[in-house]
Amino acid sequence: MIDLLQALTNGVFLGAVFALAAVGLSLVFGVTNMVNFAHGDFIMLAMYVGFLCWSLAGIDPLFAIPIAAVTLALVAVLIYGGIIRPVLGSTQLAQMVVTFGLLTFLRGVVQFAFTADPRRVEDPIVGDVRIAVGGVAVTGAQLVSAVGALVATGALAWFIHRTETGRALQAVGEDPGGASLMGINSGRMYGLAWALAGVSTGVAGALLINNFGIDPLAGATFGIMSFIAVALGGFGSVLGAAFAGLLLGVVQGVVGLYLSGYTLTAALGIYLLVLVVRPQGLRGTR
Amino acid sequence: MFQRVTARRGRILAAMAAAAMFAVPACSASDADSAASDVKEIKIGTPLPLSGPNAALGKDALQGAELAADIINNGLPGLKLPLANDKGIPNLNHAKFKIVSADTQGKPENGASAVNHLVNDEKVDILAGALESGVTKTAAQQAERLKVPFVTSISSSPALTQAGLKWFFRTGPTDVTYAQSFFGLLDEEKKKNVSADKIALLYMNNTFGTDAAGVAKNLAQANNKQIVADVPFDPAATDLTSQVQQVRAANPDTVFVVAYPPTATLFVNATEQLDYMPSAVMAFGAGFINDAFIQSAGDKLEGMSRRVAWSEDLGNRNPASKLVADEFKKRYKAPLTENSARVFTTIMAMAQVFNNAKSVEPEDVRSALVSLDIPGRDTIMPWDGIKFDDQHQNTGARAVVEQRLDGQWKVVYPKDIRSQEIVWPASDARKK
Known about the structure:
Chain A is built from 11 helices and 2 strands, in the order ααααββααααααα. Chain A has 286 residues and is mainly α.
């Protein structure tokens, strides 16, 4: 029983990070109707930003969160303006090629700049923290990652659903033409969606470096899990993606306990099941 | 839809094909006549993962190859190894070695295409790579089709040399040799009346991991050991806590871990989170060899053991090995590792192969490989030497077991060359 509780706890903690990563991807799809295949690599970039903060200025990952968030927001906006906006009206194939190209480019640039050697932040503030309650243990890094991810996910959801700008974002996602007639600048909203996706990956990346190694492929698995979460939750549904991210984490934790070699298979299996039973995803509207 | 071929066009195509068939051997024969005198450069193709999850390992291996080629070409003062100071291959007019690399990205599907590129485009004379057993498998099969000698150093899956390939050779130990060193150590511990019979396997469910686990299971049966947990995991996993919980629940004396660097980090994190340290952790594979991983894991590795084909601890006792290790560190600002030492040794052995063959013709080179016999003292490895058996596996390859103690890897097995006895249980190593 303790083992199951431990697996569930780990799953929820990991799922919180999946949720935050998935929210950014879902937002970009929901607003621009475009799938960013380089989303996981934004997380990897954020990890390197956090690593640079620590190695050059001694800034702990916890305090590097706002720096990574702002940096990734800027990077995302630049990428949007430079290579995404020109293909927004193109075919989906053209958009896929662009974001696939971006994925390869980002990995290549990072490997060139930092080499492929795995990096790690040594002795983060939460590094030696370990809390055990009734036989269930969590590390400080896990706790910080999960709480930080849940807070950031909640803040993003609040912004999208409770603010005027957030509603404008949703309006553009629903009907860009109609939104323009109402005086909403669709182009700016698209840029904002990318910026918010940058913020979510920035926060996720900075949180992850407390207990994950940093290398040019560090974001790959998080990218895959984000895709599954977005598809599972319903393309375009931010809350659906967040919920699905948490679910995926729990599935990985529990399946890892009983069928250790099939964690990714189980995640994909659930996605396929939902695809058959409810093709629009758990909370999909499209 | 396919084009229809008319009878006349068919005859022309057939004639051209026949001409091509005869033309190729004619060229080869003509080349062979002048081979020895014309050779100025010997190209060695190294398919390695230079990007992807194992890129750091690939870079390390490539540096081992480049250092060996440079020593063959330009010498290294004071190094007493065969052909180390002959400035090229003496029997081939002092032809120089040139390393030509190709990136496999660590993907099996890229192994064959990397070999194709190296052989057909780069015209390499021999292949030395790859790294992951799954990639080496596809690369070796392609080299077999192209009839080009392929010598691997790092890939340890026994199946590679059991496939009956004519052109494939391996200088390094297999997983059987590696695992035997662990079982030998466990037997020594057993003689001291400590509990060392229960083994848990925690391994990646890829070619390397499943092969290594298979070998461990067979040897466990042969050595009267009990496998109490069999826990595979996905190499792309983001967390191994549940898997380590499974291992802990079985209460093993020893955990065999097979992991590449990213998952080796997850394993170490999970043991910390669960505050779990079995009597012994014995690591297979490159995950526990990568210097960046070792540096970043720091104290968390204390007490854990690994098997290696080259040991810095032993190397310091061998003047040639120490000289090469120092030179490697000077050039690349990184320590010589088991992987780079194995590739270095293979390239140095290739110098003797070409020198003995007096030719770069594939069949001559293959024959020279088959009859190669280098004594252990002429290498930087703690091996008996390099001599291939019928399956083209080096019979002289050996492995040693090291344990992380006070931030250093110390040889703890075999008994005759160890620096000290293993600290058992491993948790005692952390009490200092």
